[in-house]
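Long-time lurker, first post. I've been practising inverse folding by hand and with some scripts of my own, and I keep getting stuck on stretches where the structure tokens seem ambiguous. Below is the full token string for one chain I'm working on. Before anyone asks, I'm not after the true native sequence, just a reasonable design that respects the backbone. If someone could post their per-position residues I'd love to compare against what I wrote down in my notebook.
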């Protein structure tokens, strides 16, 4: 594992800790897309089934278990104790199209034609677009609190670091190629483009995240 992959993993962990802390401290899930969180839960379930079929390393197992458990916990918080603060009307993105599209791509362009590899490919394609309901909700409200902005930035930053990790591995390892992850990762990072611009020009300068009118 190289430093870029490790940094990406730590930023991904950080994004989840930020979100859970935000939900627990404010006792509200206002501004958070439940649909995005459900998509991430589906991503982790379909990607980490192999955790029960073989052992890679302690680090690998702990990370997979954490992502599965934390995603489930976040969905639970939003659907049970914090349900009253959830605004379904704002969280209106049609996620069925994202799921169907990821399924089609996984069947047509899988890593390999086995059940686990098709599910893995599906999770990669779905993760690439899972943030869209959250970004869509932010465009509808036109703003977001700073903690939510930090959460979304950490999610986008983690994937951007993974791209650097792939470039590093491409030049340092023989015969390294992972075209599905590469293409999906670039698409995923590109979706954060406008958000990154506003984050750097407003939030990091002490202002609130607010879309230009």
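-- Answer (accepted) --
I ran through it position by position. Result:
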């Amino acid at each position: 594992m190289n430093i870029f992959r490790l940094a990406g993993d730590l930023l991904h962990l950080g994004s989840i800790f930020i979100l859970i802390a935000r939900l627990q401290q404010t006792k509200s899930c206002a501004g958070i897309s439940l649909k995005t969180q459900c998509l991430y839960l589906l991503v982790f379930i379909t990607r980490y089934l192999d955790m029960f079929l073989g052992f890679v390393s302690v680090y690998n197992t702990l990370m997979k278990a954490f992502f599965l458990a934390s995603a489930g916990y976040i969905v639970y918080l939003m659907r049970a104790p914090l349900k009253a603060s959830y605004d379904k009307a704002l969280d209106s993105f049609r996620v069925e199209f994202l799921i169907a599209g990821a399924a089609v791509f996984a069947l047509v362009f899988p890593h390999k034609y086995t059940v686990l590899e098709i599910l893995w490919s599906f999770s990669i394609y779905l993760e690439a677009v899972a943030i869209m309901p959250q970004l869509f909700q932010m465009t509808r409200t036109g703003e977001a609190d700073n903690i939510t902005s930090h959460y979304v930035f950490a999610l986008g930053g983690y994937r951007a670091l993974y791209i650097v990790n792939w470039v590093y591995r491409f030049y340092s390892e023989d015969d390294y190629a992972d075209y599905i992850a590469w293409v999906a990762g670039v698409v995923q990072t590109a979706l954060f483009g406008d958000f990154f611009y506003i984050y750097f020009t407003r939030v990091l300068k002490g202002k609130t995240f607010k879309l230009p009118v």
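A couple of notes from the structure itself: Strands lie at 143-144, 209-210. The mean pLDDT is 95. Happy to go over any region you disagree with.
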